[in-house]
Structure formats: structure tokens, C-alpha cells
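Exercise 7.
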Amino acid sequence: MKKFFTMILVCLLCVGMLPVTAFAESYEPYSHIWTDDNNGVINVQYYDYDVRSNTYRISDRVSIIGNQLFDMKGIMIVSDLATFTKDKPSVVFDANGELYFISKDGQTRHMETSLDETFEVSTFVSKYFGLDFEDLGAKVYGKTTKNLDNLSFSGKYSRHTNPVVEDTCYVKTYAHSDSAETVCMDAYFNSKAVVSISCHEGTVWCETVKRMLTENAKGPKFVGYLSNYSVLFYDLDKKLIEYRYSDGFVKAYPVMLDTYVYCFNFTDNGFISSAKTSQGTYSFSTKISFPGGTPNSGNSNNSATGGTVTNVKNFTNKSMAYSGDTHLGTLSAKKGVLSWKGTTLANSKKSSEFGITASCTPVWINGEDELYMWNGSSTQLIATNVLRLKYNDDTGIVTSYKAADGNWYTLK
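Solution. The predicted structure, written as C-alpha cells, is:
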């Protein structure tokens, strides 16, 4: 009997020493729906388990104000949302963290994340969603009842854009010609562009004065113009920050401190009129007051840099890269394959481990024990017969891999 217990103990020790995959499904995701009664904002939040930091985190969230739906950055998705009630919700996240919502006319819509630029539509006409015991979307009710995972979606429909009346003073927003992920915003006065900024990942670059406005800030979650041609953005230290045209965009002026911003409202010309925050609605003047002259460029900074990966949240079915709290990209597993920023990755079937390096490069070990990376345009084989990946315990960033020869090799 003593030998038997000794054998059991040895077996348990051996099992404990086996390598554990980074994304073993030990904890189920859940949703939390709550109402900010002071501001009339309904929040739908999706929590997933971060397997590296051993905690639950919000990996996506949306806010609802009346018939308007806003993404996790506070930017409007649609303005024709069906009325949301606790008993008959019109917005849900499913178990995979994907977003579903219903329009006023019963159109059923789908997005993989709230930050997507487009949504898909189903032919199924819906009334409301049914939730499971974790408050995740499970069913959809119309003339009949269907499971969410039985719905089919198609098409690419643009989300809501704020209307712009192009008189003589307005804001024009467009994608940079060399980078679809860089958003440019020009502010016009008397039909002439007087300020030009570009936003890429966690940075705001003011081309007018050749200066990085976010050099000493965590952000932005949102950026736009006030009617005095100041640049306003929401810093991820929960600060509303204003850079003023009148002083050449040199100094950061805090507008509000320690507050959550749910969304922004605009004039017809594209200028910010108010911000809905956890402390109430903060209104800005909408009277056009152009300071005049040319802003002093001062000390220029001629290099606009992208966000650097500071931490990665590794959930059971995805890895999300951040620069501070600014989301850089998501590597997600769905139906046995991986995708990065919506692009399906070849050679990623049955991946046992995956993650993101410090250079924001997705890497993974597929079902053939091959280590691949995404180089920005295609998948690239790094090594074969790879045993496992190594993650930084503090940041969640993939740092190296263990090869069949037993050695660890650095990943950049």
C-alpha cells in the first residue's frame, strides 16, 4: 500500500511539471450589464480570463444612450438601435466576445469587436436577445427562436459617421493614403484647412506645427476639434486634455481629471459640442472662434512614431496588444484558426499556443508544432518541432520559444 501511494505521489509531481499551454480553458467568460443612473448610460461589458495575469479583464464593452450605440472608444457605431431593456436586450456579447445588436426595424447585426469599421447583417428579423446564466447572448427571438451560433451573416456595412455640413467652417476626417489605420482630421476656416492632425494607434501628430501631442500622454481614446480649433483628446489616465491653436499646440491643458468619458457629441460641422462623462455632461462652446494667424511651431518633432507594445492581455481565445491602455491589435482564435486585425492567418490551424511580441508581431505554434509569425503581409515560418512559447510574467508579451534541441530562442 505504501508503494502504491508513493507511485501516486510521483505521478502527481510529474503531471505538475508538464508544460501548460497558455490558453487552457479553465475559466468561462461572462458579461456584466449595468446602468449609470446619473448619466442615463447603459453599459454592456465583456469579461474574459487573462491566463497570464490570473485575473478577469474587460476585453470589450459598448455604451447605449437612447437609440445610439457607442464602441469602447466612445465613438458611435449606429444611431438606430432598438430600445434596450433589461428583460429584452437589443445588444449582447456572445461567449466568444463577439457583438450582436438589433436595429429599430429588427435588422440583426454582428461585429467581431466593437472597434470594427463595418458590421454584417442577418436575414433573421429580431425582436430581442436571450441571455444565458453569465448574461451572454445565447438566443435571438423573432417570429421564431434561434440560437445565435445558428445565424448566418453577410455583407459589409459602414457604421454611423457623424454628418458634416461643409459650409465654410468644418472638420473633414479621412484615412491616410499610405495607411488605412491612420486617421487624418483637417479643420477648415473659411474653406481653408488651418489645422491638420493624424492619429495612429496611441499617438496624435499635429502636422501643422510638426509636433507629437501625445508624447507625454497615455492615449488617446478619442481625438477631435473644438470650435476654437483646439485639439481635444481623452487621455487613458482618465483626463480630458486640450491643446490650443492660440499658443501653437505647445501646452497640454487639463479640462477634466479622473473621469470616464462615455461618448462625444458633435455639431453638424463636425466640431465637438459636449462630452458625456461619469461626472455628467460637459458642454463646449459651439460658436466658431478662429484665433487667426499661423500657430508658432516652436521646437519641432519630425518623427511620428506608432505605439509600442507595453502589455498583452492573453485570454482563452485571443491576445490583445496595448500601448499603455491603447489597443494596438487583437490576435484571436475562432473555428480552429487564428486571425489578426480581421485577417485570417494561414498555417495557424489547431494552434496550441499563440501571443504577441514586443514589436507587435503575432506568433503561434500550430497543430504541426511549427512556429509561425505574421510579418504584416504574409505568414512566415520561424522554426519546426517547437515545444512551447515563453511569456513575460508581468507584461504578457511573448519573449522566446523553446526548440526541439532544448534551447530557448529570443523573439523580437
